[in-house]
Amino acid sequence: MNEWYYTADQHFDHPFMCSHRGFSSVARMDKILIEAWNDTVKASGIIVICGDFFWSKNPYYVEKILKRLKGNKIFVKGNHDYWVKKLKYPFRRIYQKNLKFGNGNNQYIVCCHYPMASWNRKMYGAWQIHGHTHGNYPPLPNQIDVSVDNAKTMLGEWRPFTHAEIKYLLTTKEK
Question: How confident is the model over 57-68, as pLDDT tens digits?
């Protein structure tokens, strides 16, 4: 069975995010994000990217980075993802708004770039996985921000979350 991973808001090639995160250069930030991704994600894994992946509008730069990243990528578009229409690199799937699925373990998951106040099957325990807020939005029960900024805060690294980590974080935090 393939392992699942979730992430958002890398903002590759984004000078403001580089400065905001305390990196010395965009190249350094991108290098750290790529290394952290590849240290976490297995080549056979499935990774859901909840938007704002790149700041760059240069499709060649985007493709160059994507080819270096492990995993089968599923993409949910964010508000800064202008590059998607120009891209030739094959994602496993691209979703314009959100992705809803069951993971085979009776866990229903809704992935979107934005946090939601309500989502499909919320009252039945469905999780909502999102980005956009960079860890600056108080989550609702069964909701988690998978931005790399929140990963840095919660996990100590600029990397994707594993499914097991999300399950642990959502099932052990106080209700």
Answer: 777 888 889 899
